[in-house]
Amino acid sequence: MNFNDRTEFLEYLRNNPEDGSAFEGIEINKPYDLGFKDFDNLQRIYITFDKYENFCLFFHPETKELLLGDVNTGGHAARCRVVKIERDTIFSSPDSVKKWYDRWAWEMWK
Q1: What is the signed CA dihedral for 40, 59, 24, 35, rounded to 10 degrees?
Q2: 3-state secondary structure of 28
Q3: Beta strands 31-34 and 79-84: pairing type?
Q4: β-strand 2-3 against 43-49: which pairing, if any?
Q5: Stretch 66-90: mean pLDDT, rounded?
Q6: What share of the chain is helix, strand, coil (3-state, %, to 5)?
């Protein structure tokens, strides 16, 4: 799913309010390990507006949580990890959101 317009994305979020937490113990802005099945079930959303250029967000189809995510294929076994973010942060602090991807290996896997 792609959004090239801030207003359309805001409307999408309003029509899909967050409802609970899909992953026990997940916290805002803290890396959380997932199994491959859970990671693959997340929907991908790409946003291109304001400071974002084809920026990937992950969306849980049931709870509507917004996440950043990655698969680390280095080391002995591949691992999936996500970071839950607050919806408002996408609009109020794009630099801090983009930092997770700009310094992905350091921020996500440290």
Answers
A1: 10
A2: strand
A3: antiparallel
A4: parallel
A5: 85
A6: 35, 30, 35
